[in-house]
């Protein structure tokens, strides 16, 4: 399992996954995303995005659109997506990252702390109002100094062994019913009469 930058070919998959998970896709640009990928199967497991906000004389960066497909949950996929986003923000010169979420407990384990709504930068305060309309009043703002990010070791270990919940062998046996054929009543054009 590894996390990489999204490519143009990931756009359709990203839009489908965002819709499936009920996340917002405001100002969608696939190049802003990172994707967790299983190196053996090539299956995409999770994703997240950095969104730049300009206001006053400063720029702020928001981690948003973080999602993990249900069959990949519990393997540290989301944690590694968050780590990659924080690392990317740090490499781009940001000292602080923000998240507006209705699930703050998940992010607190990495060092994020809640920010009072009045203390959010202007562009993020506006975005918080939008997200509350979309997700409800439970959305709060969190911030993290990029140097304070902490990855719990259990997520590192789980990520090394990640596999989807339905990772068993697929049933390769096909039956007539799979194709909408009732074998009891079907007639065939080239029946040999045997």
Task: Summarize the structure in words.
This protein has 194 residues and is of the alpha+beta class. It has one domain: Aminopeptidase, CATH 3.40.630.30. It is built from five helices and seven strands; from the N terminus they run E-H-E-E-E-H-E-H-E-H-E-H. Strand 3 and strand 4 (58-68) form a beta hairpin. The longest helix is centred in the middle third of the chain and has 15 residues, at 77-91. 29% of the residues are buried. Mean pLDDT is 84; it is low at 167-172.
List the helices and strands and how they pair.
Blueprint lengths: L1 E4 L5 H11 L11 E5 L6 E12 L2 E11 L8 H15 L4 E6 L2 H5 L4 E3 L6 H14 L4 E6 L7 H8 L34
Parallel strand pairs: 4-5
Antiparallel strand pairs: 1-2, 2-3, 3-4, 5-7, 6-7
How would you concisely characterize the structure shown here?
This protein is α+β, with helices and mostly antiparallel strands. It is 27% helix and 24% strand.
Please give a handful of descriptors for the protein shown.
194 residues; Aminopeptidase; seven-stranded mixed β-sheet; elongated
Helix content range? 25-40%
CATH classification, class level: Alpha Beta
N- and C-termini, Cα separation: 53 Å
Work out the strand percent. Answer: 15-25%
Give start-end ranges of low-pLDDT stretches.
167-172
Total of helices: 5
How would you state the average pLDDT, rounded? 84
């Amino acid at each position: 399992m590894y996390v990489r930058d999204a490519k143009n070919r990931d756009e359709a998959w990203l839009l489908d996954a965002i819709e499936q998970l009920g996340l917002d896709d405001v100002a969608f640009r696939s190049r802003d995303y990172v994707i967790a990928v299983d190196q053996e199967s090539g299956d995409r497991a999770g994703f997240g995005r950095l969104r730049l906000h300009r206001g006053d004389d400063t720029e702020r960066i928001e981690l948003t659109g973080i999602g993990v497909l249900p069959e990949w949950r519990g393997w540290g996929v989301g944690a590694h997506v968050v780590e990659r986003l924080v690392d990317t923000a740090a490499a781009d010169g940001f000292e602080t990252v923000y998240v507006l979420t209705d699930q703050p407990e998940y992010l607190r384990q990495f060092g994020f702390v809640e920010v009072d709504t009045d203390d959010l930068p202007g562009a993020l305060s506006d975005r918080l109002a939008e997200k509350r309309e979309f997700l409800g009043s439970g959305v709060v703002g969190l911030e993290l100094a990029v140097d304070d990010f902490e990855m719990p070791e259990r997520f590192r270990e789980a990520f090394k062994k990640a596999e989807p919940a339905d990772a068993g062998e697929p049933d390769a046996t096909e039956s007539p019913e799979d194709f909408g054929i009732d074998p009891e009543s079907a007639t065939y054009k080239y029946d040999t009469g045997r």
